[in-house]
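Structure Section — protein described below
Tokens — whole-number codes for backbone shape
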Amino acid sequence: MYEGDPATDPTKAGLLKVSAEKQQLIGVEYGTVELASSSSSFQAVGKVAQDETRVVRIHSKVEGWIEQVHADFTGARVEKGQPLLTIYSPEMLATQQEYLLALQAREILKVSSLKEAGENSDSLIRAASTRLELWDFGRAQIDELQKTKKPQRAITLFAPASGYVIARNAFPGQKVTPDTELYALVDLSRIWVLADVFESDAANVRVGQSAVIGLPYQRGKGLVARVSYIQPQVDPATRTLKVRLESAESRPAVQAGHVRGSPVPAHFAEKSKRARGSGTGRGNTQDRVRGSRQRLPGAAPGGNRRANGRPH
């Protein structure tokens, strides 16, 4: 036994001592094994769709009749806080009048010696104000009502979010109830792409994986997307896996209405780690071989060393 001998040193277990002459005879290649990145890609076909989490459906909370329509066509772009329409609601008008009467009663009862009377008037004001707010009559509108002492005959319905009008059911003179869906808005600053990945590539897809969506009307330019959801089962009819990608690089052409267009190609990027060897120079009689990458000078590929055209 010798110090440093692989047979007795557990830290060097698995090492093999080969002399330089034997290395040349058997054509040993050697080097350092290290992890390196490799990449590959595969393609799938998908369709651009709306992000369902960014769709807003707008209803009126009171019953009434539409008087004016400001967002009057499908596809219109609206901003948050922009007026959509005005509604005449007898119920809303009556509540505004109740609020004004409660304010008037409080002013009259200020000179009253009955403390309970003043407290009751304050309760009536709070109740009327709360009812107006629950019906989307904003705080600024309530302040304006308190200042002018004049109720608004028609109330304005404002857009709760920015987006494009994808559905419209609001026309002048139309009667509406809280069940009536007046508008549907969608924010297209982020879109979905629903891709069909072949069963043979299903194992290579993972959440967070990047992909590039090709656009037929912009050759050479694509949308960068990432996988956000993978369906748990393969479609038995098509033998494909449904994969949802999200992209925050929505282009104006997509925003303008190409959300339900023709299928688009999705190029998935796949990255992995693999072992790679690199040559470290010619060995000597004390070399310990861990891997093989580089042949020694004069050694045949996988065979004996040749010199002057004859086997050694």
